[in-house]
Amino acid sequence: MQVTLIIALVLHILSGVFWAGTTFVLARTGGYHADRFFRPQMGAAAITVVTGGVLWFLLHRGAAGIQEHLLAAGAVSALLAASVQGAAAPALRQAATIGGSGDFVPSHRVAVSQRIAAALLAIAVVCMASARYA
Q: What is the pLDDT of residues 21-70, one digit of tens each?
């Protein structure tokens, strides 16, 4: 179990840092290069969610204290962030076809989705970082 726990924790943290980091940058830049980061972000989101589920199973199964409530709030925020980013996929495809020459021009919808996802991921990070001390 120790090796599984370490691997799950490392994958969870690394993929979460990539996902949140790219989201914060894309939110700040108005979605510039969001077309290049969409698949890696969704891959990192999937890895983060799956490894988070593994960590929950290994460490928090059956418990229902304040720590688990904070972690659950963070997990819900992360799932909402992934949903918001995934919902922007049609806008990314449309903006890429309008650009034509290969220059991606982000739409307002892409920028707003990245900003909403960034706020949700910030909530997730705060919940997960503070849960240990609750």
A: 999 999 999 888 888 899 999 999 999 999 999 999 999 988 889 999 99
Q: How many domains does the chain have?
A: 1
Q: Which domain holds residue 125?
A: 2-131
- Dig out the tokens for 58 from the structure: 């290994």
Per residue, the 3-state secondary structure of 103-132, as one string, reads: CCCCCHHHHHHHHHHHHHHHHHHHHHHHHC
What is the pTM (predicted TM-score) of this model?
Answer: 0.89
Burial 102-129 (b: 16+ CB within 10 A, else e): eebebbebbbbbbbbbbbbbbbbbebbe
